Amino acid sequence: MHARERYISAPGKSILHGEHAVVHGKVALAVSLNLRTYLRLQATSAGKVCVNLPNIDTFLSWDITALKSLLSGWKADCSSSELDSNLVKRLREFMAITDGSTDTRSMAVLAFLYIYLSVFADAEVLPSLSVCVWSELPTGAGLGSSAAFSVCLSAALLSARGTISTPLIQQQNTARWSDAELELINKWAFQGEKIIHGNPSGVDNAVSTWGGVLRYHAGMITPLSRVPTLRILLTNTKVPRSTKVLVSGVKDKINKYPSVMTPVLDSVDAVSQACEQTLADMATEGASTKHYNILEDLIDINQHHLNVMGVGHSSLDTLCRVTLAHGLHSKLTGAGGGGCGITLLRPETEPSVVQAAVQELKEAGFECWETSLGGPGVLLHSSNSITQDTLSILTSY
Ligand SMILES: Nc1ncnc2c1ncn2[C@@H]1O[C@H](COP(=O)(O)OP(=O)(O)OP(=O)(O)O)[C@@H](O)[C@H]1O
Ligand SMILES: C[C@@](O)(CCO)CC(=O)[O-]
Ligand SMILES: [Mg+2]
């Protein structure tokens, strides 16, 4: 281990179009948010690994010797991009997780232990360390909290192992890794997502790693450079849901009704492509009413498709109805089933209109915030570049 202490952050994301369809090889457009997950890793000499996850009220530690025994007779298969089922099985037994359990706390800890043991499997000794992760993102609400969590873990453990650099030099507040290093971070974060999600497309971890606005198609990541600044209202319906369960429900529906569902997925693909084209036109021609009319139509069409896929929820219907009454168009974002939705605001939308809509949404029990899109991907921080509030949470465990 090089530095005794490191701080890392990674952003959440919003999917503009293509959630669920992207799992089945269609195009998705996704954008990073200015809400982030923060991680502090501290090298210790306690002979233990400690994990503190205050967002999910989970605080655990293990003796290094117990973790070491999990590696006996196990050989990492570095050639495969699949999860190592043998290691997952050992960890499930170690943590006494019953088969088929999707208990959220267990999945987060399982993801941590999986990445820790895999990254340090060929090290001479397993290091003693303490990790604390805390997020500004609501967990399990469609804003990519699982991906931001996995990206932070992956970056922290790879840099603690020395597999990637620790690029922060003196006096710098934040630093980014090289493209090759980001690819490695993304690869291990994807494994974390597989543990938490089941069958992720990889779009969420890609946005959290690279930041900005991305087109994601069958593992191909294309940053979109010609994108206008969009005003988006985010609403959290606060209805809990599990991405893993929703993704597998859509798969069941496709298997049951392939000829019905395939055209729906194709249409979502066309929506994503039409949106990409409109955003490019807006950036080159200047945004006009015509462009916003198209973006609003695409939002409405996609929201209907997501309902057909079975990932809508009455809370999301309320969001769409309330905002439409104020002339605003909304759709769910992420896996749906509750969680968060996005509402497009036009440049000329009066603050009073937004305030009136927000007031009604709050009365329905929802939480809203206007957000800026396209923040930086995973970052290494100096401690003084992290706000005092976040720092005091990360250092209090
Ligand atoms: N800050 C965190 N601390 C610990 N675990 C976390 C944290 N953030 C996310 N997780 C893990 O990720 C799970 C939520 O992942 P899930 O994929 O269901 O939702 P999401 O990522 O917020 O939404 P979506 O996948 O639709 O964007 C949590 O239950 C937990 O296991
Ligand atoms: C629902 C989904 O498409 C997006 C979740 O943010 C799942 C995935 O792509 O992994
Ligand atoms: Mg997720």
TrEMBL record:
Pathway: Isoprenoid biosynthesis; isopentenyl diphosphate biosynthesis via mevalonate pathway; isopentenyl diphosphate from (R)-mevalonate: step 1/3. One of its GO terms (biological process) is cholesterol biosynthetic process. Residues 292-360 form the GHMP kinase C-terminal domain. Catalyzes the phosphorylation of mevalonate to mevalonate 5-phosphate, a key step in isoprenoid and cholesterol biosynthesis. Signal peptide: none annotated. It is found in: Cytoplasm. This is Mevalonate kinase. The gene is MVK. Keywords: ATP-binding, Cholesterol biosynthesis, Cholesterol metabolism, Cytoplasm, Kinase, Lipid biosynthesis, Lipid metabolism, Magnesium, Metal-binding, Nucleotide-binding, Steroid biosynthesis, Steroid metabolism, Sterol biosynthesis, Sterol metabolism, Transferase.
